[in-house]
TrEMBL record:
This is DUF1631 domain-containing protein. It comes from Marinobacter nauticus (strain ATCC 700491 / DSM 11845 / VT8). Residues 236-252 have a biased composition (Polar residues). It comes from the Bacteria. Pfam families: DUF1631 (PF07793). Residues 230-261 are annotated as: Disordered.
Amino acid sequence: MNKQSGIHYLREHREAASTRPVPAEVARIRDTVVAGLGDLLQGAFDAVDDSLFELANNARSNNEQNRYFEAMREIRIKRKGVERHFQNTVAQFFANPPHAGQLPSTEASPQASADTLSLVGNDDLEEQVAFNAMTTKAKAHFQGPLLQLQARFTEIYPDATEQEPVNPMAPEHLCSAFTEAIQALDIQIRERLILLKQFDRYVISNLGMLLDEANRILIQAGVIPNFRYHGKKSQSQKPPATADSSAESPSEATAGYDQRPEDTVLFDQIRQMLALQRSNAGMPPRSADPSLRVVGGRELADMLNAIPLQQNWPETDDLSTGEPVTVDLRQVVQQLLAKADTQDGRQPALNEVDEDLINLVSMLFEFILDDYNLSAPVQVLISRLQIPILKVVIKDKSFFSKATHPARKLLNSLARAGIGWSSSDEKTRDKLYGQIHNVVQRILNEFDGNIQLFETLNEEFEQFLERENRKASLVEQRTRESERGRIKSQKAQEEVDRLLREKVSRYRLPDSVSDILMNGWSRVMFLAYLKDDTEHRWHETARVVDDLIWCLHPHEEDEERDQWVRVVPGLLKSLRAGLEEVSYNATRLDQMMGHLKHELAEAFRTNAAIEARQDAPSDAEDEAPTVHQTAVERQQELEDAAIAEYVAKLDTIEIGNWVEFRLVNGTSFRCKLSAIIDEADCFVFVNRMGLKVIEKTRVELAHEMRRGRLTLLEQGALIDRALNAVVGNLRTKTA
C-alpha cells in the first residue's frame, strides 16, 4: 500500500477547502483523515481489480469475460481521478460541514428518503440499498466515537448547534463522496456494487482508527476533554412507568423496545409514504379525541397473544392443506378492540403507528401469497404466520430494516429451502417438508411474544439444512461428474464418426482397409479425443488415417515412392500399437494387419489407384438441393433471430439457480442448474436431492423460454423482495 497516496494531494485539498478558514486542530484532522482515507482507498481499488480479474477468469462466455475486462480497464484508467475527486470532496466537508443526517447536495448522492426507493431490478435502488447498508452498519459499529466527534465538532464550528450538529467524518458523508466520485466510471451496476462492497470492506470498516485519532487531537486541544460515551441505558436506569401505562407517547410507540433509530429507518420511510397517501386521498390527520383511548403497542401485543393462532385454519394435521389464505388483520384487530375493557367509558382505538404496521404486514403477505417463485406447500405454510409476524413487528420494528432479524431470517430460510418443490405430492416423502411443517407448527403453538423462539428455530433449521445439503451436494457432484463424462464421450464419438465418414466416403477403399478404420482405429481415435487435453494425440491419430489413404494412392514419381517406403513401416507400427492399446482382439488384429499389408504391397507393386466415388449427383441434379438448402438456411436464420434475446438471457443463469419447466400436458417441475458442459453447450439440471432431472442445449432452452415453458425463479431473500415490491407500489401511488 502506497503510504504517499493521500499525502500527494494534500496541497490540493488545502486549496479546495480554503473557502473559509478552519481552526488549526481541524486542519490537522483534515490532513490526517484525507491521507488515511487515501491509503485505505488504495487497498479497496486493488481488491476491486482482483475481484474483476477473478470474475473474468471464471466467466462462462466471451461476452461476459469482455465485460469484466472492460470494467477493469475503465477503473484502472480513471482510478486516480476518482481518488482525487473523493479526497477533494472529503476535504471540503471540513471547510463547510453538512449538518448531521444531511447529505451533500450533489446529483449523484443517493438520498435516504422514500422518494429514492423503487421496484426490484432498478439499478438506483440496488445502489441505494448498498449505500444505506454501509452507513447504517458504520453508524452502529462506531456509535460511541461518532457521538463524541459530533459533539466536539459542533462545539468548534460557529454555525453548528445542538439542534443542528455537524460531523465532517460522518459515514453518510464519506459514502456519499465516494458514490459521487465513481459516477465518472462507465460501468454497469454489478461492477459498481463490487466497488461499493470493497469500499465498505477496506475504507468504512477501518474508519475507527481515524475517528479515534480525530477525537484524540480534539481532546489534546481541550475540546470537551471529559466527554464519555456509556452506550444505551440499562432497563434499571429507565424512569418508572406512569400509572396509565397503556397511554404510550408517540415517540415511545415509534421507537419500540430499546430500538436504535437506524433499526426503524425503513419503517419510518414507509410511514411517510403512507401519510402522504392518506393526504392525497383527502384524509385529515387524526386529532386527539378525548372519547378515544389509544391502545399502545404493548397492550395490542397482549391482545394478539390471547388469540389461538390455529383458529383460522382447517382442523387438520397437515397445515399445508388447501390454498394460501389472506387474513384480514385489520378486522382481527378491530374485533379485539371491540372486546377490550371500556371501564373508563372511552372507546379503544389504535394510533397511526400501529395502523401503519397492520397495513404494512398485510401488504407484505399480499406479495408473499402472490409470489410465483414460492413453491405451493411453503406458500400455504407461510400464510399461517400472518398473525405471529404482526405480533413480532408490533414488538420489534427492526424486522423491516435488519436483514439479521431472527423472524426475517427464518422466513427467508423457509422460502429458500422449499424453492425446489414442484407440487404438494412430493412433500409426504421429503424430510425437509416435515421440518418446515414442524417449524410453523411450533410458532403457532409456542410463540407468546418472545422473539428468541425464532432464533432457536432458525438455528435448528439451519443445522438440519446443512446436513441435508451436504448429502445432496455429494449426490449432485456424482451426477455432475457422470454427466460430464457421458456428454464428453458422446461428443467424442460424434466427432470420430464425422471425421472418418468424411475421409472414407471420398474413395472406394478395400473392405479390409474400411474395416480396420471403422471398427478398429475408431476406438483409438475415440480414446485420444477424450485424453487430448493431457496427451495431445488426437491430431496424431487423424494423421494416421490420412497417411493410410495416401499410401493406397498411385505413386509413379521416384520421390513419392521413396517417401512411401519410409512411411509404411511407421504407419503399420502405429496402427498395431494403437489397436493393442485399446485391447483389440489379438487374433483378429493379426488377420487384419495381414490383409492391410497385402493391400499396401499390391498398391505399390501394381501402382493401382483407389478409386474416387463416382456416384455424385450431376450438375442438373445439384440445382434443386441448392435451392432447398437455401430455404432451410433462411428458415434457420429466422429461428435464430427469434430466439436471440432468449439466448442472451440464458447467460444470466448461474450454477445453483432454480428454474421451472412446464410440460405440454400442463404439469410442471422445478429443478436446479447443476452444470454447464461447454463441450456440448449443454445445461444439466438436478432436483433438490441432487439427481439428474433433465438436460438441454442452449438453443433448446431458448426455444423453451420463447414458448413460455421455462421460467427463471427469483432466489433473493423473500422478505427483501416483498419489502422492495411494497415500497415500489407505495412510491408509485404517492408519485
